[in-house]
Structures are given as structure tokens and as C-alpha cells.
Amino acid sequence: MDTKQRILDEALTLFSERGYANVFVNDIAEKVGIKAPSLYKHYKNKQAIFDAIIDEMSSKFEQQAQALSINGTNPTADAEVYRSMDEDHLVKLGNDLFAYFLHDSYTKRFRKMLTLEQFKDKDLARVYSEQYFDRPLSYQGMLLGLLVAQGLLVTENVPIMTLHFYAPIYMLLTVCDREPEREQEALELMEKHIRQFDKIYGRNF
Amino acid sequence: MDTKQRILDEALTLFSERGYANVFVNDIAEKVGIKAPSLYKHYKNKQAIFDAIIDEMSSKFEQQAQALSINGTNPTADAEVYRSMDEDHLVKLGNDLFAYFLHDSYTKRFRKMLTLEQFKDKDLARVYSEQYFDRPLSYQGMLLGLLVAQGLLVTENVPIMTLHFYAPIYMLLTVCDREPEREQEALELMEKHIRQFDKIYGRNF
DNA sequence: CTTGACAGCTAATTCAAATTAGCCTATTAT
DNA sequence: ATAATAGGCTAATTTGAATTAGCTGTCAAG
Fold first, then answer.
1. What backbone phi and psi angles, to 5 degrees, belong to B202?
2. Which of A29, A97, A124, A190 is most buried (most C-beta within 10 Å)?
3. B interface with A, Cβ–Cβ below 8 Å
4. Given its phi and psi angles, is residue A134 left (phi above 0), alpha (psi -120 to 50 degrees) or beta?
5. In this structure, is the CB of residue A1 within 7 Å of any atom belonging to strand C?
6. Which residue is nearest to nucleotide D20 (CA to C1')?
7. What sign for the dihedral angle of Cα B180, A23, A171, A141?
């Protein structure tokens, strides 16, 4: 990985741990293995590093949005995959989602960084909400909607059902971000949550 | 309010908007209407102001824990209140909870401040989780447990049901904290959430 | 082979923010 | 009445972090 990229990577790590203001260009340089002034060969200033991270993100999200969709271009094709969905499949879906959000290094660091910077301006607020509220609800709503269409889940209100599916996952995720030692506990709650979700919304027979 | 207290109050406001590191003692002094060096007559340094806020909080929470319990010392007395609980009562319970968390000035500023400082150290992480995860789940679990005992709600797993009740509320709250202009939208989702919650867990007849 | 751009370095420089020094006044307790 | 204290002020001082200046070696292109 070239220096320019390594700077972003190390900066992201530091920003996610301490927040922008508590990270010094010196810290970043040190992690990269160069001296602070050398950073300026690659980025105009500290803010430009931050901005580059946000930009890089935005494009990675585009890709990710595709990748998460198992067969992105054709939602009805996904339906095949879920035709035989049962509780264990749903648990797996939830666990995978949780594991991805929780352990994907890039995702995790970015989320933590945004958590610390979300109130700085409207743009960052927007990015956070998009990424961790609107988009997941919309994507999962689509998936769960397929299950409803299949008759595997029953509800009159898919968006609210989706909220019921996702909100606990989101909340447990934030717990793990701030207290990683509670991950096991969170995973157990996760599984119970999904099993109960399935019991509640599953076709009742 | 005396100066010492006003300092805490203005500092809390600023910390909640910008985070500790982005607030200068000068800013605090200005809001209070004194010069920066005068702050040091009241607090040893900037960190001591932050610490005092946290301490003050912790004690307010003690009180609050009592206040929230309608009849704190005697849970079974609460049961009376809820004997005739129906969907509209539940909506009101949720709305009140939401409105309190969202609009109580002190609570709101403190929550936002903690959001920005939660990764600084284990203590702060603990305080956040206690206040916005463990305690609400435990308290609401108690209340919802009463409704289950009354036969007004049905579940085999009260803690998970409580998660289903609270997690969406929490999530919508964080949305409003970062995008206050979405409050209306959040309130509507809130109400739908609770109505669906009631439909799901309510006795089915 | 030599030139220019790239990416590093050390040594300033700048600037802003926290804190301290030392003075003044008003209230309060003796 | 006066001495002590509390709480304010202005004017330093200190510190530390971001950035700039300007030098150097490397390597690829002509």
C-alpha cells in the first residue's frame, strides 16, 4: 500500500479511537513511519486527510451497497435464495449482518469515527444517518419484504417490522463499539432477538 | 444560579455541541459572562469542569431513577396504574419516554456530550451504557413485566420484548439528536412502532 | 547523463489555547 | 473596623500542535 493510502488508513484508525481533534498529525505520521512535515507532500493539511477518508468511504459504500445484495441487480432472484427461509436462516442473516458491521475493520473504524464527529456539521450527520439508519432500513426492508411476499413472514407494515428487526441489532452494535468486552453478551441477545422476531412475525403454523 | 453552577451549565451545552476538545475555556467564560482566567477561581482546570459535570450527572441520575418510577418504592402499586392499560396508554408511555429523553434539556445535552466522549475511557463508556442501555432496559423491563403479569401483554421472554420496545425508541432518539429536523418523522415512526408492538405482544383477543 | 518531480528530512515559524501571576474590590466574619 | 476571602480583571507565560521553508537523495524520462 502506498504512503498516501497508508496515511488514510492510520488516520482512520486514530480518528476512530480518539476523534479528529485529539489526533495530532504527528501521531499519524509516526504510525505511517514518516515525519509529520512529510504528510504535507500528500495532503494539503489535516482536514484534507479527514475529508479524503470521508470521500473514500462514500465510494466504498457504493460498492458495498452492491455487494450486500447477494444478487444485486435482480431482487426477484434473491427471492429464490429465501424461498426456503426458516428461523435458523434468519438467525444466520442477522448474525452475518451483525458480524459484518462489527468486525469489518473498515466499517467499524469508519462508524466509530462518524460517531465522534456526527454533530460537527449537517453533512456528517447526513452520512451517519444514511449509512446506519436509512440505508440499512431500506435494504433490509427490501429483503424482509421478499420474505413477506413469500408468505414466510406476516405483517401489515414492513417498514415497522424492519425497524423491529434492525433497531436491536443497531443498538447492540453501539454497545460493542463502546464496550467490546460485552460482545459475547450482545451476540447472545442478538440470537434471542432474532428467534423471538421470527416467532412474532413468522407465519403462525 | 451562581457562577460555579452556570459554568457547568454553559460548559455542558458547549461540550454537547462540539465535544470537549473543540470547546475552549474562553468560549465557556464568554457564555458565562466572565473572563477565562476567572474560571480558575472555580475549577482547577478545564478537565475539572468536565469531571464536575459527570459527577453532577451521576447524582441527578440517582434522583431521576426514583422519579421515573411512578411510585418508586413499591412496584406492585404501579401495577394498579397499568391494570387498565390499552394500546393508547402504551403509545402514551412510549411518547412520554421519548419526549422526556428528547426534550429534557439536561438529559439531552448530557447524552450528546457522552456520545462524543464515550470512547475516551472505560468509565465514560460505562456511564453511557448504564444510562442509555442497561438502565432503561431494566426499568422498562420491570414495567412491561407488570403488564405481562396482568395478562395485558404476552411473551415468554420479557427482556427480549423489552429490547423490542426500547431499541427502536433509542435508535429514533439518536436520529433526532443528529438531525433535529427529522423529529416529526421520528415521532410518527415511534407511534407506529408502539402500535405494532402492542399488536404483536398484546393479548390476542 | 542529467533534469525534474517526488517524497523524505530537519529546522524554523506561527498561532492559538491553557494556565499562572499579580492586582483590585466587595462582602463577610471576627 | 479590619482582616480575610471570594471572585473578578489584565497582562504575561508556557506549551504544544500545525504548518512552512528549504535542503537532499532517488529514479524515471528524455
1. -65, 155
2. A190
3. 17-19, 21-22, 112, 115-116, 118-120, 122, 125-126, 128-129, 133, 155, 157, 160-161, 163-164, 166-168, 170-171, 175, 177-179, 182, 189, 192-193, 196-197, 200-201
4. alpha
5. no
6. A37
7. positive
* Å: A9 CA to C10 C1': 26
Grid coordinates given for A205: 403454523
Residue B176 to residue A32: CA distance in whole angstroms: 38
pLDDT of residue B62: 78
Per-residue pLDDT at A81: 58
Question: In which residue ranges of chain A is pLDDT below 70?
Answer: 66, 68-84, 204-205
The whole-number pLDDT of residue B89 equals 83
List bases, strand D, within 7 Å of protein CB. Answer: 6-12, 16-22
The answer for residues whose C-beta is within 8 angstroms of residue B96's C-beta and 6 or more apart is none
Confirm whether any atom of chain D, the nucleic acid strand, is less than 7 Å from CB of A45.
yes
Q: What is the pLDDT of residue A137?
A: 97
Among positive and negative, which fits the CA dihedral A194, A197, A201, A204?
Answer: positive
Extract the C-alpha cell encoding A172: 447492540
Spans of chain B, pLDDT less than 70? 66, 68-84, 204-205
**Distance of alpha carbon B89 from alpha carbon B86, whole angstroms:** 5
What count of CB pairs under 8 Å joins A to B?
Answer: 105
- Structural contact between residues A114 and A57, judged by C-beta atoms closer than 8 angstroms: no
Residue of B nearest to A169 (CA): B167
Distance CA A183, CA A101 (A): 13
Residue A114's nearest CA partner among A104, A129, A136, A103 is: A129
Report pLDDT for B205. 54
Helix (H) or strand (E) holding B155: none
B111 touches strand C (CB under 7 A): no
Dihedral angle at the C-alpha atoms of B61, B107, A180, A193, nearest 10 degrees? 90
Query: What is the predicted pLDDT for the residue at A82?
Result: 56
Which residues 130-169 in chain A have a CB closer than 7 A to strand C? Answer: none
- Is the distance between the Cβ of B41 and the closest atom of strand D smaller than 7 Å? yes
DSSP B22: G
Residue numbers in A near B17 (CB within 8 A): 119
What pLDDT score does A91 carry? 85
